[in-house]
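Collaboration report, partner site 2.

Our partner group contributed sequences for two proteins of shared interest, and the home lab folded both. The records are reproduced in the order in which they were received, starting with the first partner submission.
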Amino acid sequence: MINKMENKEGGFLRLIVVVVIALLVMRYYHLTISGILNYFHLSWDGILNWFKDLFNSVK
């Protein structure tokens, strides 16, 4: 039981580290989320629909 808890905490900490590193890289290269979406020709509506379809498929 304790081993399972350590794995969940380790995964959460790893996720936090990845997010922080991604934000630092975005700041260093002066990137914005909107700029990245424009580069790949994506829109907020398209992203939200993709997540909606993803969550609906899991049900």
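Second partner submission, folded after the first:
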Amino acid sequence: MRASSLALAALVSLAPSYALAQQAPSTPAPAPPARTRLSLGAPPDPAAFPSAAPAAPSAPGVEVHGYAAGWWTPWSEASPTQARDAFRLRFAVLRVDAQITPNLSVLARLGLMVPDSPLLDFHATWTPHDAVGVSVGQFRLPLGAAATTLAPQLVMLDRPGYVYSMTKVTFRDVGVMVHSSPRGIAHGLLHYWVAAANGAGRVGVGSARAPGPVQDYLYAARVLLDVGRVLLHGPQDRLALGATWARSHDPAINTGTLASDRNLAANTLGRTLAPIGSERDSQLLGADLTFARSGVWAQAEVLYLDTRAVGSATSREALGASVELAYTLPVRPFDLANVQLAVRGERFDPDLAAAADELLVGSVGVNVLPAPAWRASLFATVTRFHAPMTGESRSAGELALRLAAAF
């Protein structure tokens, strides 16, 4: 490719939506070729609550994006999850979007920070209408607000801990999902997702599961009603109500080694909260509320898990809830960066039938965003829990510097 063509491609990648083309006076302009583009801004993943303005269909081509976040913990005190490493790579994700036609796309996402197979997503999506789309392959399940919010859009660069405990590792599975388009229905007022999946988790991770009766698969559904489309008027204003339901039938896990059992159970709904030594049925219910206006962002979510062994009275009920608030200052200090203050409180009861096993977590901190693709955060977290051996209440703490970048 000539140098001028390379320069033109670079300009197209940096501009939001400008058509740069030359047309001969007597002949029509040729169709733009397929392109490979590396964006310098934050990845264009659909937000949990997409923009009200419908996006134009994408032109055929390929786009590559990446996101990484590292945590440095200069101080921590032992907690139920034990002390963490001083530095850890929390997210390292490479995303490839291939737009085949305006209505057909393929998405692949690799997570370099996850154990075993790095493949997070690999699915094709056909969206003939805003009201109907179909995705086939390995994808993120619709398991509530926090689990479906992508890493670059997390206010605290992480989710409440109970979300990981009550769902499954990386929230992925293999199957088919019917859903609305990212633009939603009725100008973004309504969004929905209905999925049927194998239930065993990602390909190459955990134990393989042979095809079985239809009722033994994992089913999940989520609906989101953004009444802010009617009551509020700003393009980024939100007042969204969400509801989630999921059900999974899982075989018994008993390899003879507790560590192996827990690794396999991590890919099933309910993870180690469920009676994994028995064949079991698990149901997850959730509700969430999200509000955004004038620099204020708030989200509340509650999840309830009910898992029961088949053929016995063994069961487990768990409840998790959180409230998260953030405020972006109306001015940029020294004209250098946007500053956002954030706080979150969460409560997790892993067994409603047991006494004195609740986990309380509070986090407070600040996000500094010098550019859309860069973020530096400092958060302090305090955990209150009960020691499993003595039953006495204990506290733990952590101070973490979190750095994130996207391309």
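Feedback sent to the partner group on the second submission included the following. The chain has five helices and 17 strands. The two ends are 23 Å apart (CA to CA).
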